[in-house]
């Protein structure tokens, strides 16, 4: 229990670290730069999630394969290099200046090392060594805060700020994370084509789900940037960081309990759902507290953190409150579906949501801008949540009551 709480604390600190980055860029560099930073996240996000192949969920929960961590590690390495190649292709086709292209390339390298770290997290989650995750996030947050702040204050440059992220990631990866890797301490046995194919087939469904999930989140950003401005995207991104913080907390708690819930699911679906519904109830209490704070002090918090230019976004604050509810529960429902290896239906759900996001973005965001972007995100989450609940009810009916 102590390790799980420490992991949540580490995740909160890491989320605050990410928020600090947005605050410093917004206040010291400008809305254009924070919009550009958000655009880089939107461009690389789908590639990052697809290349990770969701091994962080697949390895602890899969029951069809019994491969050593080394095999999964080799698979991740190949996927990582594919990520670099895919990012370079994207870099060739997006309309950026030379300076902005350099920023994006450094950002890609940062994400490359973050992917490498993610697999060490995967190994430790599978072994239920949650304390490592906590300390890694805490150390990385401290190092990143120091280097990122120094880069922004001293150089007043986005490229140096992004470079500080890469340096921080590499320091933690080589100095701390690698010591806790299981695969790095074992002989490199190499991955065979059959093993690669088996992992690919097992994980492709969940990987596509994450890819579509990322695209659903980022399509409103693409449309907002193209039809309005990078500055408007910057405002949207800064407010949306409350969603990212919430999502990180849910992911942290999920990482802490996924191994235990997976074991309960193996014993019986009824036992799993008992624990899962209790987890949903705990989050409901946290949501009520969070919503009360957000609706009461939300606008004041925006002005205090980002400056007077963020005054007057009361409508967006209300929409944000609605969005946070869907953020929590769609992520919890996704974890439940993954534990039961229900991947194909998740692809169908995310595919439907993806199509809806495209249509709604052009219908709503083009004429209504920033407010429309929040409405589109809420509607896409609503569609996803309805589908997830339907699948879980169907699973309950045939696995628990049958």
TrEMBL record:
Q: Which of UniProt's keywords are assigned here?
A: Cell membrane, Membrane, Transmembrane, Transmembrane helix
Write the protein's name: Lipopolysaccharide biosynthesis protein
Query: For this UniProt entry, what is the primary localization, expressed as one broad class?
Result: membrane
The record ties this protein, via InterPro entries, to: Poly_Biosynth_Transport (IPR050833)
Q: Which organism is it from?
A: Salinicoccus bachuensis
Its transmembrane ranges are: 12-30, 36-60, 81-110, 142-175, 196-215, 235-261, 282-305, 317-340, 347-366, 372-393
Q: Tell me the compartments it is located in.
A: Cell membrane
Kindly give the membrane topology term recorded for this protein: Multi-pass membrane protein
């Amino acid at each position: 229990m102590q390790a799980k709480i420490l992991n949540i604390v580490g995740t909160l600190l890491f989320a605050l670290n990410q928020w600090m980055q947005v605050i410093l860029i917004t206040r010291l560099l400008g809305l254009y730069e924070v919009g550009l930073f958000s655009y880089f996240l939107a461009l690389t996000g789908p590639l990052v999630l697809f290349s990770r192949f969701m091994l962080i969920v697949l390895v602890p929960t899969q029951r069809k394969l019994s491969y050593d961590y080394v095999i999964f590690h080799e698979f991740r390495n190949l996927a990582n290099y594919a990520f670099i190649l895919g990012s370079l292709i994207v870099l060739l086709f997006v309309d950026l200046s030379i300076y902005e292209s350099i920023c994006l390339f450094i950002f890609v390298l940062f994400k490359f090392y973050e992917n490498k770290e993610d697999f060490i997290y995967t190994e430790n989650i599978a072994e239920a060594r949650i304390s490592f995750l906590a300390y890694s996030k805490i150390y990385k947050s401290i190092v990143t805060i120091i280097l990122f702040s120094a880069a922004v204050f001293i150089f007043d440059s986005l490229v140096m700020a992004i470079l500080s992220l890469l340096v921080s990631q590499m320091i933690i990866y080589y100095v701390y994370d690698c010591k806790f890797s299981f695969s790095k301490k074992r002989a490199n046995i190499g991955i065979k084509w059959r093993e690669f194919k088996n992992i690919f087939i097992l994980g492709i469904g969940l990987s596509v789900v994450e890819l579509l999930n990322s695209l659903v989140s980022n399509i409103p950003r693409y449309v907002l940037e193209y039809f309005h401005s990078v500055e408007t995207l910057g405002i949207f991104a800064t407010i949306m960081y409350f969603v990212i913080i919430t999502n990180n907390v849910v992911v942290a708690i999920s990482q802490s309990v996924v191994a235990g819930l997976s074991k309960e699911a193996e014993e019986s679906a009824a036992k799993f759902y008992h624990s899962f519904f209790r987890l949903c109830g705990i989050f409901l209490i946290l949501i009520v507290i969070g919503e009360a704070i957000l609706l009461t002090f939300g606008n004041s918090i925006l002005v205090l953190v980002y400056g007077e230019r963020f005054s007057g976004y009361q409508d967006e604050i209300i929409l944000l409150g609605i969005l946070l509810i869907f953020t929590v529960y769609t992520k919890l429902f996704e974890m439940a579906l993954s534990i039961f290896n229900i991947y194909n239906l998740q692809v169908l759900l995310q595919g439907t949501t993806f199509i809806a996001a495209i249509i709604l973005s052009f219908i709503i965001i083009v004429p209504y801008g920033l407010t429309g972007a929040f409405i589109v995100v809420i509607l896409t989450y609503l569609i996803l949540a309805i589908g997830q609940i339907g699948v879980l009810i169907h699973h309950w009916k045939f696995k628990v009551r049958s």
